[in-house]
Amino acid sequence: MGTTPTTASPVALPPIPDEPLTAALERAAAEHGERVAVDFLGATTTYTALADEVARAAGVLVGLGVQPGDRVAIALPNCTQHLVAFYAALRIGAVVVEHNPTYTADELAHQLADSGATVALVWTKAVPAVLIAKSRTALRSIVAVDLAADLPAGARWALRLPIPKARKAAEAMRGPVPADIPRWDRLVRDARPLPADHPLPSSSDVALLQYTGGTTGTPKAAVLTHRNVVANTVQGHAWTGHEPGREVVFGVLPFFHAFGLTLCLSYAVRIAATLVVLPSFDPALVLAAQRRRPGTFLPAVPPMLDRLVTAADAANVPLTSFTHAISGAMALPAETARRWEAATGGLVVEGYGMTETSPVALGNPFDATRRPGALGLPFPGTEVRVVSQTDVTQDVAPGEPGELLVRGPQVFQGYWGRPDETAGQLLADGWLRTGDVVRVDDDGFVVLVDRIKEMIVTGGFKVYPSQVEDQLRSMPGIADVAVVGVPYGDLGESVVAAVVLREGHDVDLAAVRDWCGQRLARYAVPRRLVVLPDLPRSQVGKVLRRVVRDQVLALSA
């Protein structure tokens, strides 16, 4: 197999420091201690205070019996305590396992059991689901995290008011927690700090188990070391050229997602930025934060950019403080890029990556050479190749489509407990198979042609058809099902369920959405139902999802 990169990075890779992820926080506290590290709905925490809270939280985890290498599950929305938990677990050499806090008990049970997590730090609203899942896991301790503890004092007081608006706000932020489940904020407040001489993890130690379906089926955990994630933050810093201690990063992406985790939890701390944390993406909340603390850098997905521009226009809130935005997880439409740059006077560029690359592997330059709609150029220190879809040892001719391979310091170590799947994805000489078909244009830009697999990307989230199909097959009245994605404007793709009904049964979209809504993440619930007499199959009986997709598109036309 040849090892010549198809196209080179325009930016050199600086030396990657031999240090754990937590070193960035210690450095920021030492050099920018009085700078606001986190702004959560107006409640601010300096870097000195954040480092102190992380030290106490690390002491809590040691007190709970967490040892180096143990897995600590975090199932939280974006909040200050999420940062604290993340860095505390890493500081003592534990492995962070991020989870979507809105997952069902079954989804959480699979991931918690698979990782072997022994301690879970859980949003109060997710505690019931984790308690249901606990018997199927190795969990010893569940600790409840109350988002309200991160609010400004006035906002916490307002939640206690005996009025409908306050009750509704409290219900959205909190959930029922049994009396024997300890509260994280109280444990941290009363804890003794971890001694400064407590052993640090090494750069080669595992830092994260980040769940992904990759390009197929059941979610599996990508193993990322401290060095993998540190490398990606160093690559990102070289790409943006941000000056430490000056940026204001808006944390609107979910921290449990690889994109939000690296750009917000890791990169923002490496450049000692102020991270404006939003518990969820709500244009009104973002604009309120923009009035309070104007942002300079926004990692986002395209629908967020569009909605923010529309909302800012309506509310007459300027976005001109944003000089940089990076768009990922789905294609960046040229019109979205045009609207954002017209509203801000800054630049928005598209990046490409996957959980297995920590996650960024390619990006568009932050200058006039950017190409909306293209994946971009290799990140610093990253090699790419385009190979035959049927023989990965053969490079394709320039400009021809083929599978994208990536190699670099950010490429993961493999899948947790899945050596066979690791061998199929991570080749012996370090090249990662992405499962995406691309071409490289004459100017070196990589352009996405198609996905080899049939994963659906909706609103930046990955939906795996087989998981949705598994749930629908158990629904009364459905004999067979195929789930596909079809174009859906700014959201990228819409989840469509094509079903074959059992004789004498009738099923409507409302029933399908209700059934799936109790078993799947909200973004995976089908938006449309199509009833077919039968499903097209290959000679070996496999449902041909691409043919189903064509049928759905034809019906739409």
Distance between termini?
A: 45 Å
For the record, the CATH class of one domain is Alpha Beta
Number of helices: 17
Classify the beta-strand content into a percent band: 15-25%
What is the average per-residue confidence, as pLDDT, rounded to a whole number?
92
The name of the CATH architecture of one domain is 3-Layer(aba) Sandwich
Model regions low in confidence, pLDDT < 50 over at least 5 residues: none
Question: In terms of structural class, how would the helical and strand content be classed?
Answer: alpha/beta
Q: Oligomeric state of the chains?
A: single chain
Strand arrangement, largest sheet? 6-5-3-4-7-8
Radius of gyration over C-alpha positions, nearest whole angstrom? 23 Å
Keywords: Ligase
Protein name: Long-chain-fatty-acid--CoA ligase
Pfam families: AMP-binding (PF00501), AMP-binding_C (PF13193)
GO molecular function: ligase activity, forming carbon-sulfur bonds
How would you explain this protein's 3D organization?
This protein is an alpha/beta fold and 557 residues long. Among the domains are: 49-201, 3-Layer(aba) Sandwich (Rossmann fold), CATH 3.40.50; 456-556, GMP Synthetase, Chain A, domain 3 (2-Layer Sandwich). 33% of the residues lie in helices and 22% in strands. The protein is built from 17 helices and 24 strands. Strands 6-5-3-4-7-8 form a six-stranded mixed β-sheet, with helices on both faces. A five-stranded mixed β-sheet has the order 11-12-13-14-15, sandwiched between helices. Strands 2-1-10-9 form a four-stranded mixed β-sheet. One of its GO terms (molecular function) is ligase activity, forming carbon-sulfur bonds.
